[in-house]
Design brief:
The structure is a single chain. This protein has 379 residues and is an alpha/beta fold. Helix content is 38%, strand content 12%. Strands 3-2-1-4-5-6 form a 6-stranded parallel β-sheet, sandwiched between helices. Helix 1 crosses helix 7 and helix 7 packs across helix 8. The longest helix has 24 residues. It is elongated.
Length: 379
């Protein structure tokens, strides 16, 4: 298939997750992504294991975020290697960097310098806390932003301590926002002929995830609390134990709630003034939720899923990762791809005309393409 970003060249100067994720999304959509790595070990994520890939030393994490790229080793502390980067940028459309705040200016590749020399370049900076404010020069990793950004305070049960989300959600979101910004900036360049600076940050992403809670606080001063798997505005909308395995129920309106109550064998709940309407269910949830929990213990999960789905009630099994990987839906989605000469990894979560792009190459070894890429540059 013809991929939408064929002919676009991306220079990725970064490591770990947010920057490489933006790079791999663009690569899977057809861009030629050249990953710049430092001579001493390259991207730190290369050793973030186990598990490791077929070579026994490169982390599966690195394979996943760096498939379909070319690796070039440059020491950006050396003026001659910075000059090589400039020559690369003369051939590029997008540069992505998520180095420690201040480093790009120290080595002479900050946005003002690069855009002055390469006016058609889309320069994407990924920050920890953003390009302004008292914390602008502070580095950070995902869990620190889950803490600082309020996410931990609203994750988990009320009796639990603040809890991390199980995925690197701020890194992932920032990589995606960077990609969105880069593509929008390319569209702008189509009209103006000029590149621009795109800034994203883990802090901005963290605030985006809790925007509802922040908006509520600004509106009425209410500080959101932890609700376990439940919702502060919809009841029931959470997980429950059954006779064997947990289930998630999400009857998100009064009509679906009436169907749910019927399946549970308690039609009267749907007409009881305390439970009939959404606002009343929220107000009386301490009474209602234990009754739902008790009813669900009467049958195993598979039986409840069949009954709820037949009645049109939104529900799902609470899968662990192994159960997820073995589902028929996972198989049908073709999300898992075999990298050439590498491991199996989760691929691009986008399809074009019902075709999901697959990476034609695995993750590169450190500096694998240095001679190939630099040798092709104009002298």
């Amino acid at each position: 298939m013809t991929l939408p970003l064929e002919g676009v060249r991306v220079i990725e100067v970064g490591q770990a997750l947010a920057g490489p994720l933006a790079g791999v999304l663009l690569a899977d959509m057809g861009a030629d992504v050249i990953k710049i790595e430092k001579p001493d070990g390259g991207d730190d994520a290369r050793i973030w294991g186990p598990p490791f890939g077929p070579d026994g030393k490169t982390s599966l994490y690195f394979y996943s975020q760096n498939r379909n790229k070319r690796s070039v080793v440059l020491d950006l502390k050396l003026a001659e290697d910075v000059d090589k980067l400039h020559k690369l940028c003369e051939t590029a459309d997008i540069l992505i960097q998520n180095l420690r705040p201040g480093v790009v200016d120290e080595v002479g590749i900050g946005p003002e310098t690069m855009l002055a020399r390469h006016p058609r370049l889309i320069y994407c900076s990924i920050w920890a806390f953003g390009y302004q404010g008292p914390l602008r020069m502070k580095p950070a990793f995902d869990p620190l932003l889950q803490a600082y950004g309020g996410m931990m305070s609203v994750t988990g049960r009320p009796e639990d301590p603040p809890t991390f989300c199980g995925a690197s959600i701020n890194d992932k979101a920032t990589g995606m926002f960077c990609t969105i910004g880069a593509l929008a900036a390319l569209r702008l360049r189509d009209r103006t002929g000029k590149g621009c600076l795109v800034d994203t940050s883990l802090f901005d992403s963290a605030v985006h995830w809790v925007e509802g809670q922040v908006n509520g606080y600004i509106a009425n001063g209410t500080v959101s609390k932890r609700h376990g798997t439940g919702s502060p505005v919809i009841v029931p909308y959470q997980t429950f134990d059954t006779a064997d395995h947990p289930i998630c129920l999400a009857p998100g309106n009064d009509r679906l709630w009436a169907r749910c109550a019927k399946v549970l064998g308690h039609d009267e709940w749907a007409t009881n003034p305390k439970f009939a309407k959404s606002a009343e269910r929220v107000a009386h949830k301490t009474e209602l939720l234990p009754m739902i929990a008790e009813a669900l213990k009467a049958k195993p999960r598979a039986e409840w899923l069949e009954l709820m789905e037949k009645a049109g009630v939104p529900c799902a099994a609470v899968n662990d990762i192994g159960e997820l990987a073995r589902t028929e839906q996972m198989e049908a989605s073709k999300l898992i791809q075999q990298l050439p000469g590498g491991p199996k990894v989760v691929g691009l979560p986008i399809s074009f005309d019902h075709v999901r792009p697959h990476s034609p190459r695995s993750a590169p070894s450190l500096g694998e393409h240095t001679d190939e890429v630099l040798g092709s540059l104009p002298k």
